[in-house]
Each structure stands twice: as structure tokens, then as C-alpha cells.
Amino acid sequence: MPWKVLLGLAALASQTHALLRFACSQLVVERFDPLVTPGMVSPHLHQIVGGGYRFDIGMNANNDLPTISTCTTCTYSEDFSNYRTAVLYFKHQNGSFQRVPQRPGELLGAANGGMTLYYMQPNGGGKVTSFKKGFRMIIGDPMLRTFNASNEESNHLNFRCLSAGGGNGGTSGTPGTDTRDLPAKACAGGIRSEIVFPSCWDGVNLDPPDHKVGSLARPFFCFPLISMRSQSHMKYPVNDKCPASHPVTVPTIFIETIWDTTKFNDMWPSGTPNPFVYSMGDPTGVGQHADYVFGWKGDALQRAMDQCNSFGGACATLKTQSVDAINKCTQKIRVRETVEGWLSALPGCNPVQPGPARATAVASCNATKDYDADGGPKGGSSPAPPATSNPSPPATSTAAPPASSTPTAPASGQVAHYGQCGGTGYTGPTTCVSPYKCTFTNQYYSQCGGTRRTSKSGFACINW
Ligand SMILES: *[C@@H]1O[C@H](CO)[C@@H](O)[C@H](O)[C@H]1NC(C)=O
Ligand SMILES: *[C@@H]1O[C@H](CO)[C@@H](O)[C@H](O)[C@H]1NC(C)=O
Ligand SMILES: *[C@@H]1O[C@H](CO)[C@@H](O)[C@H](O)[C@H]1NC(C)=O
């Protein structure tokens, strides 16, 4: 057979099974969420894996994650994307909380916690097109407490009760059963969270279309709206086909996190409800959610989707790094609070809200807006970070970190776009450079830019 035909067959064969499966170790666990609440402490705790860079520069769509990142926690070293989920706590009968440690996926090496990432060809085959620079999506709804079968996203969020030794949850050789809620019994091998992102893109919008600026994303008060809005550019396939409105097949991203609940199992008194609770105060698990910010270098993801079918092994077209190297990439914690060990409340003081009604947002406690802008001495006495530690965001994203102790401009000056211009305890200038207006975000924080509106459900939202 002529070599061209061979090559064509090989490409075709692999294309119908595009698959990547790899580990990304923990980058950081803290109340910082550059996508939803840029430049401020977020309402609940997240884990973030992937590209490490200064989250406080915000998420300007022009930022090129491979350029601004200093390292990545993913075994494929050209993946500087960020993947983010809430984290799980154990609630002791005595009222104390402790974060549940994470275990890496099997056969992927001893990664420091983190997640297992899959990029899969959606059922139905055909060409898989890479996401584009600036693409983001969010699925799930942190306020949800009751599984809703008509909600597409809810149908793609599951848990698996793992059997001893990290088994897949079934009797030997058979798969286990997924649940929508956190498992109601102690799981000998821990609990695996399984999150499947939609794979049909409208081919136009990198982020929901009602983001006028398309740079800083959604403040947390909009959470109940986000999941709806994020679907505006993405859909799940119907009968394995992308709808005409969302015709571009992108990879199905599947995130697994294994919560190693085993050391808490003997602290679970028999007959009592599930003692685990997500960081937003969700003991049901149906409020689990995840964010994705695309950050593959160049055309690496497209090449991989065209050529690779790898369940944890090599993908010849991609560069890899050792597990040692991925574990070395970590981010300095900037939010000043304790999140590990026995705690008297969930970070941010999120109350446990079991539902069945939607949870309500509450005022955050501790570290509500302060964080160490440069990882320097606590108390914020250090000056603005040296230029070298700032991976030069584009000019449009130079929002100074809104730490209360470091006003973004002299008291007499005007605040730059995205800078802080108000909030409890804030003493800096309150006038924004033209054309931006000082906009109330919450009692602790007002920021230059955007317009405020109130959603139907009564949540305050900012449209940037
Ligand atoms: C709750 O129990 C844990 C485990 O025994 C213990 O370490 C913690 O101090 C207790 N908390 C309180 C408030 O008693
Ligand atoms: C369930 O989800 C559907 C689709 O998103 C939505 O229209 C409906 O209001 C939801 N039901 C409840 C009870 O939240
Ligand atoms: C909040 O801060 C107070 C005072 O420093 C501390 O006692 C409390 O444990 C903190 N709460 C949380 C949830 O971190």
C-alpha cells in the first residue's frame, strides 16, 4: 500500500478514538477564584490544578496561559489550562470540620492529590476541534441541593463509591453504580467525583455572549445565573449529535477527583446521614461544580486529538514531564486563613445547607477581601510586587490586586479599570478613570467598571 494511504488510515483510525487521560497535581487549595471572583477572596474553597500564574491579574481573555504561567501541574507539560472544583470536608459529630485528602488516579503516578483529566472524543465520532485561546466554561450550580433530572448539567455530575483498594465500586470485574448525591454509606476505597463537561460549542463565543468586555468574569452573586449563561456557548450532544446551534464538536472533558474518605469512615456513626460536606456548605453533593479555562500551548491539543488514543500512556506528539516535576509546581497561598486540620466552621463560614431548597448566599467571614498580593509578609505592609514576579499581563488586565491595605492609587488619584474603589474598611480613592464607574459588588468591595443589575432570583450581578 502506498505510504500516503497507510498514513491516511492510521490518522482515520486514531481519530475515531481520540483520548487523553492524565494527572494534574494540586496547584493550590484556597478561597481564590480568578474566573468567578477575580481579585477578591471567593465565597468558598476551591482546588485548582494546571497552569500556575498570578491569579490576581484576573482572567483577561487576551491572557495567554502558556505565556504567563511559570509552570503547570499536568503531566502533559503543554497544558497550562486551569481546572477548578470545590473541595470536600468531613463534618465530625462534634461540629468540627476537616478537609478530605485527595488521592491521584491509579496508574498515573504519585501525583500530589489533584485530579485525573480526560479529553475524549464524544460518542458519534467525527472530527474533534480544539478549544480556542480565551475559551472558558463552568458547569454545575453551587446553590443546588436537589437533583434535577431536567437539568442537563445535573445529569453530568456523579459520584462513585469506590471499593477497597480503590476498586471501581463494583464487585470484582464489574463497574459500580454512580449516584447523583454523595454516597449514603461509607466507601471503603473513597469517593470519586465525576464531572463531564459539554462538548458542543457554538463556534463563536469563547465565553458567554453577554460579557461585553469578555475579560473579567462573573462575580459570585451571579452564581445561580452562571450555569445558565455558561450554557449559552455550550451544549451537551443530543443522541450523540451536536445541535445545529452548537455545531462544533470539541473534546469532552471529564474530571475525576478521588476524595480519600477512608480515615473518616470509622468516625461515621452507623445510622447517621452522610457526614461529608462540600466547601460551599453542600452535604448532598448535587451542588458540585467545575470551571475550565483553556490553556494548551499552540496547537498541542488539536495535534493530540488528531493523533492520540492514550489511556494514561504516552501521546507521541505531546511533551510530558515527570510526576516529580508536576508536584513541584505549586502556588503560594495568598488568602490568609486556615483551611486544613480541624476547623470550627467551613472556610468563609458557609453554613451547611442540606436543602431540599436552593441554598442562599451568606456573608463571608474572615479573609473576606484581604490576601497577600505578593505572598509577602502578612498584613500587607509589603509594596507592590516587583515587576519580575508579575508575568506581564496585557495592558488591559493590569488590575492592581485589591488588598485593602494596598489602595490601587494614591488617595487623591483615580482608580484604574478593575481597581477597588469602595467597600467596608477601604480608605482609598473612590473615583474611577474615565469611562469606568465605581460599581458595588458586595459590602466589602466595589470595583471600577461594569454595571449593576439584579437578577430575577434576587441575586446582584455585575455585567462587565
Ligand atoms: C472533634 O473531634 C476531633 C476528633 O476527635 C477532635 O480532634 C476535635 O478537636 C473535636 N472538636 C471539638 C470542638 O471538640
Ligand atoms: C430543573 O431544571 C430545568 C432545566 O434547567 C429548569 O427549567 C427547572 O426550573 C428546574 N427545576 C427545579 C425544581 O429547579
Ligand atoms: C475566623 O477567624 C476567627 C478569629 O481569628 C477564628 O477564631 C475562626 O476560627 C476563623 N474561622 C474560620 C472558619 O476560619
UniProtKB/TrEMBL annotation:
The keyword Lipoprotein does not apply. Residues 383-394 have a biased composition (Pro residues). InterPro entries: CBD (IPR000254), CBD_sf (IPR035971), DUF1996 (IPR018535). Residues 372-414 are annotated as: Disordered. SMART domains: fCBD (SM00236). Residues 395-412 have a biased composition (Low complexity). PANTHER family: DOMAIN PROTEIN, PUTATIVE (AFU_ORTHOLOGUE AFUA_6G11970)-RELATED, PTHR43662. This is CBM1 domain-containing protein.
